[in-house]
Design a protein that fits this description.
The chain is elongated. The protein has two domains: 125 residues, no CATH class; 129 residues, Alpha-Beta Complex (endopeptidase fold (from Nostoc punctiforme)), CATH 3.90.1720. A six-stranded antiparallel β-sheet has the order 3-8-4-5-6-7. Strands 1-2 form a two-stranded antiparallel ribbon. It is 52% helix and 12% strand. The longest helix is centred in the first third of the chain and has 28 residues. It is α+β, with helices and mostly antiparallel strands.
Length: 315
Amino acid sequence: MDSSNINFRIFLIKGLLLLTFVPLLHLKGQAQVLAFDQLEMRYDQGHYRSVYRKSRRLLDKPDYDFSLIPTYYLALAKLQLAQNEGWLRRHKYAIVEAKRTFERLQRTHEGRAVLKTHEYEVSALKKDLRSWLETLKDQGKKDRFELVEHLITDLFADVPEVTSLPEDEAQPEPSEKIEIEPNKSAASNVRQQLLSRGEELLGVPYKWAGETPEGFDCSGFTRYLMTSELNKSIDRRAVDQYKSANKVKRKNVQPGDFVFFDNGSGISHVGIVYSTNNRSIQMIHASSSVGISIVDIYQSTYWKSRIAGFGTYLD
């Protein structure tokens, strides 16, 4: 075989490999990343040790080098855990390390984008650090007080105080525990049919790219219900469902409508409005941690701070 044929075959092989690899990269940037969702949820729930351990493990895996999310959450967890005296004794450089991480994030376009889209968390962290300052002052720990004070003034001086949702989304928090039941009076027969089938699937596990009763991801679940119950075909990805759905204002939301969320890099999650009782909104969705389940989105800091909007495919 002459050299020209060998070179041609090498060229073909490289081309095929490239065609296979590029779509995988695209998917990784667009699809819901289960590991990142779990980091965000665990942080929101205050499981800082778990976030610390998991983010370190992700940083050791080359598959996640495409994102700064693990680096960001490791720094957040360090600053939260450092407020525990025992933990800080075992990790005495944690505050300085976290400060350097935030400085690196602020120096790059991608890092600034991560901080901007997670502004709610950074603002909450800033508030926590200010409370810690008061404790350090009362304890007379001058050196650590000055270190944390510089951290706030040097890194978070321009971080706005995010204390509430936009006016159209903000709802009063119920003072009592909500017992979630479908708001039948607000749902048509078609909507009730959709919700009833969703109820039957409660407990089905989460499965990345899943769209059958053996396992669902978020958009696989919504698509399955629309197709199987209403014979209505919709887009597969959450971001495309958001684009194609008819937009609905918060005050007009009904059971059976879709609710969309943005984790900072675009639409990343979708659920179906299950009830609008108690002046709040409950959704049924494919949770990456517990599978098909029902949650009150306004009683969860994680969900309510990420609401992107509402839409519907129903009349």
